[in-house]
């Protein structure tokens, strides 16, 4: 029972922007807990270079360890096949029957939502918390749903302006730059100990080539 936030991501690596989003969503919507759901590894044929799932899962655990009210789920990591967001939401809807679910996504992802597999079912199972990202307008985002019988339940978190991305962090680590301002210290140490992001392809364009909601290459 209660209000549960679901926050998926590649988390390669998890960074202070993700933590700020989670903390703000939890506070503003009075969520009882947030479940972080690192994505599984993409299929080989997409060529997307993503750090192995065990590393991404561990970094997510380390980042949220100091805070109460967070759980890390290996739901996506355990699956061997790519899954649609609606499958994940259905899973948590069954697991937490009677709870109110809030799916946290970036405004960039929300803009694509009408192309997601079974998105109307997804919207019937949860509310959406949309986190603003640069270049996205609230009114444009809702325009796509104006013809729908049932309007989606959407909450906007629009004063978080953290100019950080995992892509930027991977590039900085590759170039030997200090990332302690962008990731928790435990994650920073983990990156160093496991020598992550030391290969050039870890931050090339292919990183954006996989869409975990539509399960297609962009
Ligand atoms: P990449 O650069 O590899 O795409 P990312 O920083 O966007 O990584 P993801 O794991 O793709 O991180 O993000 C998970 C979710 O967190 C997405 O919905 C994304 O929009 C959101 N997000 C990531 N960084 C920020 C940020 N700085 N501010 C607000 N939302 C963010
Ligand atoms: Mg991203």
Quick one: overall form? globular
SS field, number of helical segments = 9
Which class of secondary structure composition applies to the elements?
A: alpha/beta
Oligomer: single chain
Bound molecules: adenosine-5'-triphosphate, magnesium ion
- For the record, give the distance between the C-alpha atoms at the N and C termini, rounded to a whole number: 37 Å
Overall strand count: 8
Rg is 17 Å
How much helical structure, as a percent, in the residues? Answer: 25-40%
Order of helices and strands: EHEHEHHEHHEHEHHEE
Kindly report the spatial arrangement of strands forming the biggest sheet: 3-2-1-4-5-6
Mean pLDDT: 87
Give the biggest sheet. 6 strands, parallel
Strand content: 15-25%
**Low-pLDDT residue spans:** none
In short:
With 218 residues, the chain is an alpha/beta fold. It is built from 9 helices and 8 strands.
């Amino acid at each position: 029972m209660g209000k549960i936030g679901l926050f998926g991501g590649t988390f390669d690596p998890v960074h202070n922007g993700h933590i700020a989003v989670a903390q703000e969503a939890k506070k503003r919507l009075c969520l009882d807990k947030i479940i972080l759901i690192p994505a599984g590894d993409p299929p080989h044929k997409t060529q997307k270079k993503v750090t192995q799932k065990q590393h991404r899962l561990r970094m997510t655990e380390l980042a949220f360890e100091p805070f109460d009210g967070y759980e890390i789920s290996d739901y996506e990591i355990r699956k061997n096949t790519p899954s649609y967001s609606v499958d994940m939401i259905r899973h948590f809807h069954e697991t937490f029957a009677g709870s109110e679910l809030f799916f946290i996504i970036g405004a960039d992802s929300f803009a694509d939502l009408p192309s997601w597999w079974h998105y109307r079912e997804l919207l019937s199972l949860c509310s959406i918390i949309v986190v603003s990202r640069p270049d996205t307008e609230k009114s444009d985002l809702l325009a796509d749903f104006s013809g729908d019988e049932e309007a989606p339940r959407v909450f906007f978190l629009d004063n978080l302006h953290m100019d950080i991305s995992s892509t930027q962090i991977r590039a900085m680590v590759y170039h030997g730059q200090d990332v302690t301002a962008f990731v928790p210290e435990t994650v920073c140490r983990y990156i160093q100990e496991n020598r992550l992001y030391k290969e050039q392809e870890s931050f090339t364009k292919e990183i954006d080539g996989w869409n975990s909601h539509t399960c297609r290459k962009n």
